[in-house]
C-alpha cells in the first residue's frame, strides 16, 4: 500500500512541544467550581476520631496515607477507594493525600495542589490534569470542607523529617510516605491495631451512615427481585448483579464489596462472586450485597429467596432451620454479652436441626466442642462480624478485643447464620443437595435494645415468598 503523504504530513507533532498550543491553552479560562461537598457532621466526626486516636497514643507522631488506585492493566487503573483508616480520621477521599498528626495532637493534611491552566500538568497529565479528568478540589477547598489545615504534598518530607523512630505510620499505602518514614512492621501494625479497636465503637454520625447504606441496599434488593423474570429469560446472575450495582452506584458510591448473586447450585458456594450462571425457575437466589455510601460506610445484607415466589419443601426446610438459628443469634445480641454468644446460639440451633435430620450422628456437646466441629462441613464460615467503613470491619484488632470481648453500646455488626449443602456432597440426602441459605441482618447495639437496621427486609419463608410476589406484580 503506497503512502501518498508528504514528508511534512508524515511528521508527528506533540501539542506539548508547540509554543502556539501552550500559549493558547493557558488563556481565557473562566472560574471553575472545585468546592468539596461533604455530609453534615462529617468534619466534626473525623475531628473527634482524631482526638480519640491521639488520646489512645499520647505524644506519638502519626502519619497515614489515602493510597493510590491500583493498576488494572497497562495504563488503566481500577477506581480509587481511599484507605478506611485514613477516611475515618479525615473524611477525605483525595488520592495520594497524607495525614500527619503531631505529638501535641495538631493535624495537617498534605495533598496535591490543583494545576492551573498555566501549568503543564493541566493539559499534559492525562491521569490527574483537570483538562482530562475535570475539576479537582484544591487545598483551600479541602480545608474549608474538612476543617483541617491543608498543605502542598511537596512539603511532606519536611513535615516528617526526623521522624525515625518517633513516628507511627501505615506502610504499603503511600509510596512517598514509605520512603520518608522507616516504620517497622511492628509499629505499623500497632497503629492499625489501635485504629481497629477504636473503630469497633460507632458514634451517632457513623450509625446514621450505616442506616443510609442499609436503606439503599433494601431498595436494591427489591430492584433485583423485580428483575427475576428477565434473569430467567436469559440475563442470569449477571443481570441481577448489574441491577444491584446500578442502584448502588446511583444511591451511593457503589457496591461495598464484590456482590454474591448465587442461583441454584451456586448458593452453597460461600464466595460465589463470578455471578455468571443461569437463573432458572425453581431456584433460590442467595443475594449477599451491600451499598457503600458516598462516605464509604457499607451495608452487608443477605437474603435467600425463591425465583418464582415459592420455596420447594426442601428449600423451605433448610430456610426454616437457618431462620430459627438467626432468631436465636439476634436474641443473644445485647450489651455485656460475650461476642461469641450469638454465634454459639446460632450454631447450637443448627447442630440440633442437623441431628434431627440425621445429617449429624454426634451429640451436641461433641459437635460444639474443640475436638468435634463436624457440623462445620455445612457451616464453614463465621456467623457474624463488625461492619462499618469495611465490610469486615476492625479485622486488625487483637483477638482478645475482637472475639473474646463483650458487646458494647455502639457496636455495629452483621449477624449471618447459614447452611451450605453442596450438590456433590454425598453425606446429604439427595433432596438437600445444592441448597444454600444465608440470612444476614445488620444490627447496632444500644443500651436498651438491639436495632435491626435491615428490618424492612423479611426473614421468614412466608415473608420472603410474599415479598418476591409483591415485587413481581
TrEMBL record:
Coiled coil: none annotated. It catalyses: Release of any N-terminal amino acid, including proline, that is linked to proline, even from a dipeptide or tripeptide. Signal peptide: none annotated. This is Xaa-Pro aminopeptidase. The keyword Manganese applies. Its EC number is 3.4.11.9. Its cofactor is Mn(2+). SMART domains: AMP_N. Belongs to the peptidase M24B family. The keyword Flavoprotein does not apply. Keywords: Aminopeptidase, Hydrolase, Manganese, Metal-binding, Protease. It comes from Kribbella alba. Residues 44-178 form the Aminopeptidase P N-terminal domain.
